[in-house]
Amino acid sequence: MIIVAGTLTIDPAKRELAMEAAIKNMTATREEEGCLDYVMTPDPIDEATIVIFERWTDGAAIAAHFGSPHMAEFQAAMGDFGITDMALHKYDDVEPGPLF
């Protein structure tokens, strides 16, 4: 399993626009083969931050995701979000287990 986690820092005035595009992208992405979780959510304290969390079965699923039409549409829309920072990290070969 692969986990992708991170943040987008956007213009807070563009938060509603960003989330509309994110929800459309999340809906389509969650139907993709190999997608286990895919969430973009606004940080409830920092209006400039969108938190991203994804779980994928493997790298091929992520590669297919980046080649999808809905991802291309989302990436084009991102230019309107006033992004000032993006920090995404991929964690490979994650073995899930209990927290405690």
Can you tell me about this structure?
It contains 3 helices and 4 strands, in the order βαββααβ. With 100 residues, it is an alpha+beta fold. It has one domain: Alpha-Beta Plaits, CATH 3.30.70.100. Strands 2-3-1-4 form a 4-stranded antiparallel β-sheet. Strand 2 (35-42) and strand 3 (49-56) form a beta hairpin. It starts with a strand and ends in a 9-residue tail after the last strand. The mean pLDDT is 96.
Keywords:
100 residues, alpha+beta, Alpha-Beta Plaits, four-stranded antiparallel β-sheet, 3 helices, 4 strands
Topology:
Blueprint: E1 2-9, H1 15-29, E2 35-42, E3 49-56, H2 59-66, H3 69-77, E4 85-91
Antiparallel strand pairs: 1-3, 1-4, 2-3
Helix pairs in contact: 1-3
Report the principal-axis shape: globular
Radius of gyration: 14 Å
Count all strands and give the number. 4
Low-confidence stretches are none
Strand order of the largest sheet: 2-3-1-4
Main β-sheet, in a few words? 4 strands, antiparallel
Instruction: Provide the residue-averaged pLDDT.
Output: 96
The CATH class is identified as Alpha Beta
Number of helices: 3
Helix proportion: 25-40%
Structural class, please? alpha+beta
* Secondary-structure element order, N to C: EHEEHHE
CATH topology: Alpha-Beta Plaits
Between the first and last Cα atoms, what is the distance in angstroms? 20 Å
Q: Judging by the overall fold, what is the CATH architecture?
A: 2-Layer Sandwich
What's the structural domain tally?
A: 1
Fraction in beta strands:
25-35%
